[in-house]
Amino acid sequence: MNERxxxxxxxxxxxxxxxxxxxxxxxxxxxYSSEAHLLGAGQVFRGEFRKARSMAAMRGVYTAIRxxxxxxxxxxxxxxxxxxxxxxxxxxxxxxxxxxxxxxQLTTGSGDVRVxxxxxTPRMPPEGGMLDASDPIQFGASNMVSFSxxxxxxxxxxxxxxxxxxAGVRVNPAxxxxxxxxxxxxxxxxx
Length: 191
Fold this sequence. Notes:
CATH topology: minor pseudopilin epsh fold
Structural class: alpha+beta
Strand content: 25-35%
Distance between the termini: 62 Å
Helix content: 25-40%
Oligomer: single chain
């Protein structure tokens, strides 16, 4: 009689190999999940920027998204130009440039993704050096991204940070193109 099967030692060896491979893959699965959450949040903000750009083209006036710091965190509001000279902070305060949407709290929609910069993150090319972790919204001193009715925009970047990855929603000035960038291994790539 020939009996076929596996011995207990063989089964334990296979089980040990599976446990080792499973343990080694957990950090990669976490990093992939974190990047997926980061990209989802980035897509939401890219959509907000595109919506403001469309409003500027449809209405024929400058339209801006303003990031406003409040005690409970960051908020965003959309403003429309009231006197054909662009959206300006002083004119918002004076009531000339009026709010057309917001304010609403700036959230990423994902618990492990925040508006922020992880320490040690390099600047996007062509700039060199490291990003300042204290300034995740980089649209000039007014923290406002403005879109013109002719297709231009204020240049800048909104940074999103996850536990294992960094992303940025970047607006290019001439074309008002909105790009979602992810930093992997110290290099920025477009997604």
